[in-house]
Please model this.
Amino acid sequence: MKILVADDHPLFRDALELSVRQAWPDAEVGCIGSLLELPAVPESADGPAAAAMRYDLIVLDWRMPGAEGSNPIDVLRRSGIQGPVAVVTGAEDSLTALEVLRCGADAFLPKTTPRRVLAQALRLVAEGGSFVPKCVALDLMQMTDLSLDIDEPEEGEGHAPEGEGAPSSPLTDRERQVLSMLATGATNKEIGRHLSLQEVTVKLHTRRILRKLGARNRTDAVRRAQQAGLLSRSLDAASP
Model:
């Protein structure tokens, strides 16, 4: 059994290593605090492209040094690291869960997950299964209609509900940050870079903003936000 634990917080990394060693006492466990510390993959006789290092389980924090401008799973794969991935992260929101799963993770586990449940989930992933907490799974089901059209153009003239003013439900802090950058004309990539988000997550936030404001597109969303007095507060919250 060969396991890789990657987390940039030493105390939590040690706790993860302890949980892993208790579940698999005879496992070979490697621990790193940055994706820049990934083990070198031995070259293959068929060339660098064929080289790979296989793990039975990879336990990965989602916001890791060394993954700037990409996502951690892509960094692993480009480095030749293969194996099922369980993401254990400080984030608990469904948008991050969707991002993690879209990027190829086999499990999404908040760091608040009880140790007993964490151990069971890791064992499930190592055996070829997948795991998402029930509360997160229910949120993802409610978001299905949103995620299905995630790649559609955001500036198309679609139908918007009648009425101006306050949003149908309050904007989250992150949605306010995204909204403030929409007002500057920033692209999804620029917003993602500023707020340390993946582009797909920016798109999801934008969709939610449009729906809450009843807006047809970004320009309409900014106009409605200005009329509702939301934009000045969003600008105050624009830092990540």
Notes: The beta strands are 2-6, 28-32, 53-54, 57-60, 81-82, 85-89, 107-110. Confidence is low (pLDDT under 50) at residues 145-163.
